[in-house]
Design brief:
Elements lengths: L3 H13 L18 H10 L2 H18 L14 H4 L24 H37 L1 H15 L3 H10 L6 H12 L1 H14 L3 H8 L4 H37 L11 H10 L6 H28 L5
Helix pairs in contact: 2-13, 3-5, 3-13, 5-6, 5-8, 5-9, 5-11, 6-9, 7-8, 9-11, 10-11, 11-12, 11-13, 12-13
Length: 317
């Protein structure tokens, strides 16, 4: 038979004990979040990220479907009725909403269709320089020695060439400057910053214990680079690439403004800004609206890059 006295004493002791005394805490079932999980949680609370994401999403939609926003042709002009026509701000979305340029073309239609050239140049250049610069920087940082010395000196040579001046020289050698020619010229000179950032990150990460453990277990160089080093070194590269994207869009507009980038019949904000300068005394709207659109686009990508940098850098949390 059970001991009634001991059972009663145990019951009294448990009743007298404070709540939670001697009771192991319940295990925390919440999974530990990774760096990317923490970054995403921070980004969702960052107003800069939300605003810039909305702006970039709108730009991407305009780039993919410009016909959703205007049915007017960006190249068809009517000098008889629309020469330097003033903006009709009350007619939102109409062909004459933002006025007409010196060739009788709709400024609003050119603003919408010009988004495609600028965004395509920015995204394509960023993708190319990220891949090329990332691979070269990863090779230099991981192997070191002679390989690092050679690639670092090559990077220094390209760093010594002024970005815009070098782009002007390259584009001057082409008789027809299409979007892909401009992409090539900017990517040819723009990979150096990504390469340096990746090299520095790889030099730090390759000293980690998990990399030494992978080597000890017989993992090959390719597996170590792309399975262990690249996922941990890509965060600063993403930050730099995001911020640089806005700079490439600005560089394309600058070269087009100088007459060395995109040219008519290609519709570009830089081309329209260049044309607007010639009419700045009589029709300021030709210069104003493409400049505002260009500034908002560059600002959106810079804000996105800053938000990503703050989320991925533990020191800034």
């Amino acid at each position: 038979m059970p001991d009634v006295t001991k059972t009663a004493v145990s019951a009294e002791t448990e009743a007298a004990a404070p709540v939670g005394a001697g009771v192991a805490p319940a295990p925390n079932k919440e999974k530990a979040r990774s760096l990317w999980g923490d970054a995403w949680a921070d980004l969702r609370r960052n107003p800069y990220f939300l605003v810039s994401s909305v702006l970039i999403f709108i730009l991407l939609v305009i780039t993919a479907f410009p016909g959703w926003f205007t049915s007017a042709s960006p190249t068809a002009g009517d000098l008889v009725h629309h020469y330097l026509g003033k903006p009709e701000l009350g007619k939102i979305g109409s062909d004459g909403w933002l006025g007409w340029d010196g060739q009788g073309r709709s400024v609003y239609a050119r603003l919408i269709h010009g988004t495609r050239a600028s965004v395509i140049v920015g995204i394509c250049v960023t993708m190319i320089v990220t891949v090329v610069g990332g691979i070269l920087g990863m090779i230099a940082g991981y192997f070191g020695g002679v390989v690092d010395a050679l690639l670092s000196r090559l990077t220094d040579i390209f760093f010594g060439v002024p970005f815009l001046l070098g782009g002007m020289v390259i584009l001057q050698s082409f008789t027809e400057r299409t979007i892909w020619v401009v992409v090539f010229a900017l990517a040819f000179l723009g990979w150096t910053q990504i390469a340096r950032v990746m090299r520095g990150a790889v030099i730090t990460i390759k000293q980690a214990d998990y990399v030494h453990a992978a080597k000890a277990l017989g993992a090959g160089t390719t597996r170590i680079l792309f399975r262990h080093i690249l996922p941990n070194a890509v965060a600063p590269v993403i930050v730099v690439a995001t911020i640089a994207l806005g700079g490439y869009i600005s560089a394309e507009a600058t070269l087009s403004y100088l007459g060395l980038g995109l040219s008519s019949p290609i519709v570009s904000w830089g081309v329209d800004v260049s044309a607007g300068v010639q009419q700045i005394r009589t029709a300021q709207h030709i210069l104003l609206f493409p400049s505002i659109m260009l500034s908002l686009t560059v600002l959106a990508f810079i804000m996105l890059g800053e938000a990503v940098r703050n989320a991925l850098d533990p020191k800034l949390r």
